[in-house]
Design a protein that fits this description.
Two copies of one chain form a homodimer. Chain A is of the alpha+beta class. Chain A has helices at about 15-30, 40-45, 50-60, 115-120, 160-175, 190-195, and strands spanning about 65-70, 75, 80-85, 100-110, 125-135, 140-150, 180-190, 205-215, 215-225, 230-235. In chain A, the strands form three sheets. In chain A, strands 4-5-6-9-8-7 form a six-stranded antiparallel sheet, with helices on one face. Chain A binds a DNA duplex through α3. Chains A, B: This is GntR family transcriptional regulator.
DNA sequence: GAGTGGTCTAGACCACATA
DNA sequence: ATGTGGTCTAGACCACTCA
């Protein structure tokens, strides 16, 4: 029994200790927007392999404390962007604060996984309107609205994206949306989505799925994916929780 | 200009292609709960390094398609657990479906980052009640309630965790909660939290922060962290979206 | 073109679960 | 005791940004 009374029963992994050290450094010696030393220098300074350092950086990015851009560098992040998630039909038919970007508007067969949620046959035709949300010139989310063609039938196939999207949205606005069901979960960005969000494929995203009901059926389904590193979802009518409330 | 007309401008990373192959394999050749071959075999089979395979597996786990347990193996996951997030004071004062586990009940100085959100002085004393949510014997979330001692002063310091927690909750239930503000974001689990969730440190979690207001002030703050891989947050009164609605 | 983060490799050892 | 996933290393090359 030569067990020395080491209090260090923890034995936390190296990447976690590294993360803690980096958090302290970020909070005490750096300010928002400031660039950190590059990964090779940092790993050398801390005496760890670059992969281990990267594991810590990845977690800090997921927490929204850092932003990394290939070729550019790693900078200290500011507070997360608040994405307001309304209790009502907010978001789609209306106009909201913040810049938005029309990506495209198409009509095609419903993606297999969404047929059940939309309440349509597996290969039914649906309109899809996709737009991108920006915040301070940075892309933060992709919002995708699916509307069964049965709900909005009169959209000529030949129109351009902009006109088609406008038609679908106007039609929907005239509908009386009665209620909605919503869920939030974590997903990963597919390559195209990732490109629009200016992130590598597989980046963690918050997926907000909203089913709009009208006339006892699902009239539309919105699937919004927000960058998990930069976004916080804010619910309720009041102002977001901790934001700028320090007197 | 010897540019051959290669359509393959994509050049997606290897881990993403691997992910796609694995998704197809999981969906076609495996069923929920089934164990996959181990990582060394899989990486050999696909002709990649183990680290590359693990990058794909990590994403699949984050998506909730796989569960990995050290020493045990990698199994195909079932559908995510729906965590109901009510519009009212649901969750804390009341009782809800699903098993819960009291972790501890303490009274200590408020954690620095929460003082502003609770509307108390930086080193003010707060009661903390912490419990764990289980689903089918698996831990899925840690729910932590902070109540300023100014709101519930009459809790003897000497009581055991169970009694203290019960007192705080009963006191809070007698209060008239007037409203709440809520946000959802992604975070990483600290080692202790991670242990309770049976995951490695740094695991991605969904952080739900709810501020309860009563009498024009913040009476309580609930910080709930749910395993991002196994949980989906369901909002609204209706049943969750796609769940079991296929007739 | 220099410097950055992103991808990928081929190993090694450790902590844990299970039988 | 065996086998699993978890951690860590020391390299290499690629894709991208920016001066």
């Amino acid at each position: 029994m030569a067990t020395t009374a080491t209090v260090e029963v923890a034995a936390e992994p190296k990447y976690w200790h590294l993360r803690t050290v980096l958090v302290q450094a970020i909070e005490s010696e750096f300010t928002t927007g400031q660039t950190l030393p590059n990964e090779r220098d940092l790993s050398a300074r801390f005496g760890v392999a670059r992969a281990t350092l990267r594991q810590a950086l990845e977690q800090l990015e997921l927490e929204g404390r850092l932003h990394r851009r290939r070729g550019a560098g790693t900078v200290v992040a500011g507070p997360r962007v608040d994405i307001t998630i309304g209790t009502h039909d907010e978001g789609w038919p209306g106009v909201e604060p913040g810049d938005r970007d029309l990506v495209d508007g198409t009509t095609a067969a419903v993606p297999g996984r969404l047929a059940a949620q939309l309440g349509v046959r597996p290969r039914a035709m649906v309109h899809r309107v996709r737009r991108r949300q920006l915040s301070m010139r940075q892309p933060v989310g992709i919002e995708c609205l699916y509307v069964p063609r049965a709900v909005v039938p009169r959209v000529p196939e030949l129109l351009g994206d902009n006109r088609r999207a406008a038609l679908v949205l106007r039609h929907l606005r005239n509908n009386t949306l009665e209620g909605l069901t919503r869920s939030v979960e974590v997903g990963v960005a597919e390559p195209e989505e990732a490109r629009l969000l200016e992130r590598p494929p597989g980046t963690a995203v918050l997926v907000v799925t909203t089913a709009y009901t009208a006339g006892g059926r699902t009239a539309a389904l919105a699937v919004a994916t927000y960058r998990a590193d930069t976004c916080r979802l804010a619910f309720g009518e009041d102002a977001p929780i901790g934001a700028r409330s320090a007197s």
